From TrEMBL:
Keyword DNA-binding among UniProt keywords: yes
Keywords, in A-Z order: DNA-binding, Transcription, Transcription regulation
Domain IclR-ED, first and last residues per copy: 68-216
Domain of life: Bacteria
PROSITE patterns hit by this protein: HTH_ICLR, ICLR_ED
Name of the protein in its database record: IclR family transcriptional regulator
Molecular function per GO: DNA binding; DNA-binding transcription factor activity
The keyword Hydrolase is annotated on this UniProt entry: no
Positions of the HTH iclR-type domain: 6-67
Length: 216
C-alpha cells in the first residue's frame, strides 16, 4: 500500500474479486483467511458492500456478488463501444460487412457495438442489444472455443466461421478477445455471401487484437 491508496477500499475491492471468482460464495471465515485480516474487518466490509447492493448473503451466511454490480457493469458498455469503434469501422469498410463487438452476458452473447459498411448496396442489419445463446453464432462459438485455451493464446486458426447459420440466414466470422481480465467477448462480421472469403478470418483476428489492445 502507498500513501495515496486506501487500505479499506483496497480490501473492499479484493472482497468483490474473491466473490466474483467463487461460484458458491464465501463465508466470513474464508474471506478473513484469504485477506489475512480478522473477522471483524470482514463483517464491516460486507455490511458496507451490502448497503450498496454489491454483496448479498444467503441464509447459510455465505457472501456472494450482489445485483448492484450489474448496474455498474451496464455503465461499462458505452466505454467499451467507444474503445472498439475505430477497429470495427475499419473492419466493416475493409470487408464490406457488418462488424460487431459481442460480450458474454450470463449464458448469452450480447452485441454491444455494431458498425455497418458505408459503401455497399446491401448488407446485413445487425442491431446493438441483440442476444442469442453462445452456441448459435460465430460470435458466441469463438468465445466458447477460446475458453479452452490460456488467456494469451487463441485456438489454432484463431477464428470461427458459420455459413448461413446466423439468425438472419447470413454467414459470419468471429475471433475471441484474448488477454483481457474480466472480459469475455469477440469481434466478428456478418455478411450476405453464402461462402465467407478466405481473407475474412485473418482480418477478423486482426480486428479482435486491435480491440483487445484498445481495452487494456
Amino acid at each position: 500500500m502507498t500513501a495515496e491508496t486506501s487500505q479499506t477500499l483496497d480490501r473492499g475491492v479484493r472482497v468483490l474479486k474473491l466473490l466474483a471468482d467463487s461460484e458458491r460464495g464465501l463465508t466470513v471465515t474464508e474471506l478473513a483467511a484469504r485477506l489475512a485480516v480478522n473477522r471483524t474487518v470482514v463483517y464491516r466490509l460486507l455490511a458496507t458492500l451490502e448497503q450498496h447492493g454489491l454483496v448479498r448473503r444467503d441464509i447459510g451466511g455465505r457472501a456472494r456478488v450482489g445485483l448492484g454490480v450489474l448496474r455498474l457493469a451496464h455503465r461499462v458498455h458505452p466505454l467499451l463501444r467507444e474503445a472498439a469503434l475505430p477497429a470495427l469501422r475499419s473492419l466493416a469498410e475493409d470487408l464490406g460487412a457488418t462488424a460487431h463487438l459481442t460480450l458474454v452476458d450470463g449464458n448469452e452473447a450480447l452485441a454491444v457495438a455494431v458498425v455497418e459498411p458505408s459503401w455497399t448496396d446491401f448488407h446485413v442489419a445487425y442491431r446493438t442489444g441483440l442476444r442469442h445463446p453462445l452456441a448459435e453464432s460465430a460470435a458466441g462459438r469463438a468465445i466458447l472455443e477460446a475458453r479452452g485455451f490460456p488467456s494469451q493464446r487463441r485456438p489454432e486458426q484463431g477464428f470461427v466461421i458459420t455459413r448461413a447459420e446466423e439468425q438472419s440466414g447470413a454467414s459470419g466470422a468471429a475471433a475471441a478477445l484474448v488477454g483481457l481480465s474480466g472480459i469475455e467477448g469477440s469481434v466478428g462480421v456478418v455478411m450476405l455471401n453464402g461462402m465467407v472469403p478466405e481473407r475474412v478470418g485473418p482480418r477478423v483476428v486482426e480486428a479482435a487484437t486491435e480491440v483487445a489492445d484498445a481495452l487494456r
